[in-house]
Design goal:
alpha/beta, UDP-N-acetylmuramoyl-L-alanine:D-glutamate ligase, 4-stranded mixed β-sheet, globular
Length: about 300
Amino acid sequence: MQSTISVIGGANVDMSATLFDSFIAADSNPGKVDIGYGGVARNIAHNLALMGNRVKLLTAFGGDLFGRLLEDYCKQQGIDVRLSDTVDNARSGTYLCINNHSGEMIAAVADTEVVSVITPEWLEKRLGDVNQSDYVVADTNISEQAIRYLMENVTVPLLIDGVSSTKAHRVMNALSKSKLPYLHSLKLNLKEAVAITNEADYALAAQRLIDLGVAHVYITLGSEGVYCRSAAQEWLYPALPVTEVVNTNGAGDAFLAGVVYAMTKGLEFPQTAQYGLMAARATLMSPKAVNPEIANILL
């Protein structure tokens, strides 16, 4: 039986530059540039659709060429975008990253201003549809107020991706101000976890998040794997071996999609993280932010 999942947040056009050799600052570096479709929420939605779920994406497209291309591409992948919006005279979400010759990100710039239209009032109009889902996933490209609204009004499991060290603070602020400080799951990488908790140790960072109302914490540790913590359990899963890292862009998004997929199959915390690691590995081996073969690798 298919699960229905609503995914809320950013959809971007991705421009990824990978160097052929070592990076030279303030100079033109030989390399290759790929253009594709991304955004944390869109990547998660795409992965979940490839895994056989019914997926509703709630995002904002710019009223430009990129926006039309993004919307059409989502539809082609079987993602329902009827709850999304097109914002006239706005730039579409755009993500630009530079990877070293090993495929690891050196720097990135994300222009996600268009999703500022996703306010509590915007979400309220769509809440009935959202609460008919089996799971809801959001990224922190949306505002602190929107995240807080979701925490207080979504009646099915809500999972959030921290996105970046800067934007992950929105979850902490929403938890501290919420009338109902509870979140089913939060996925962060180590840098994000340290930034928002001021705890250098990932176990202490996770415990602080548990104390604030997060039921399940996943902290990805790159080559060291993932640390999982709830009030009753903690577990460290080692990373899965990867023969060659082609591109790190999208691996974290795939991880959370793998976790949600595991939940739809009845797996419980922390075993859900194993599917997250498999999904992340599949993405690391692909030049795209979403590996089109992920279903064959994961299922």
